[in-house]
Amino acid sequence: MPELPEVEVIRRDLLPLKGRRIETVEATDPDLFESPLTPDGAEDKFTGQKLLDIKRYGKYLAFQIAGGWLIFHPRMSGKVQFRDSPPGGADRSKLIFKFEGLTERRLYFTSLRRFTRFYWQSKQDLLAFEKFKGMGPDPFWPNYTWQNFKHGLLNRRSAVKTLLMNQKFIAGVGNIYASEACFRAGVDPRKKIPEIRRRTLKKLYRIIPKLLREAVAARGSSLEPATSATAYLDASSRPGRFKFYHRVYGREGEYCVDCGGRVKKIKQAGRSTYFCSSCQQ
Ligand SMILES: [Zn+2]
User: Choosing a second label site near 146 at 20 to 30 A (CA), which of 87, 89, 111, 249?
Assistant: First the structure.
């Protein structure tokens, strides 16, 4: 599932499309379009419009035209690829944009497992989108401050790793980066918030944007081989390399990069957590 860095890589890849006019739009699969948006409505709204901006909040990607925003939530296996031919295999395109002046290349939105969603937001203020209202600060947005982070910790009783994945606390962090952040902050992922020292929480606060920036620089984490239909791919259909820089995630039984102990894997709230029991207390 793409997390903040993977969606950010796609956004940056697509920025050269800013200012281009959308010439034709093909939309299918009404189940993926959240009311009031429909495939026909999307075709009507976007045909002939200029793409004004592309932004990201949490794990959502947003495309601005004069009347508002198309908001794309990839969820499990959604992809956005800018290519000369339709992505093959079981990935069927749900939305296709053709841009003026570009003959072969099109923007293909695909969703293998059909959990992906498209939303329409008519207000120009992107953060007014109802799904964003209940979300915590995004580590790449100005609302990510120690003040807001600290405020989000109030009355929390859950394990730290589980809280990091809660989008109401922070927007954009999922299973991979929650495990990696706990390792880098030296905190046991099972530790409950009230048991964690303020110094460690502050370290966690500082480490998260740094970790996510490193992941963007390595173009995100693709866990499966690029040929797998569920693998994360960037807008050019290439996998990211950050997996090779993971210190704990996916490294069960391997040596810890810091102490030489073994990385452990446990289940927390139904998800796999990786950690080093000697480095993380
Ligand atoms: Zn260790």
Answer: 249
Domain CATH number, residue 58: 3.20.190.10
Q: What is the per-residue pLDDT across 149-163, written as a single tens digit (0 to 9) for each? A: 999 999 999 999 999
Examine the fold and report which residue of 133, 155, 170 is the final residue of a domain before the chain moves on.
Answer: 133
**Of 75, 114, 192, 271, catalytic:** 271
166 vs 178: CA distance, rounded Å: 10
271 is catalytic: yes
- CATH code for position 158: 1.10.8.50
Domain interval for residue 205:
146-275
What are 168-208's pLDDT values in tens digits?
999 999 999 999 999 999 999 999 999 999 999 999 999 99
Given 56, 59, 184, 251, the catalytic residue? 59
CA angle 168/109/121 to nearest 5° reads 50
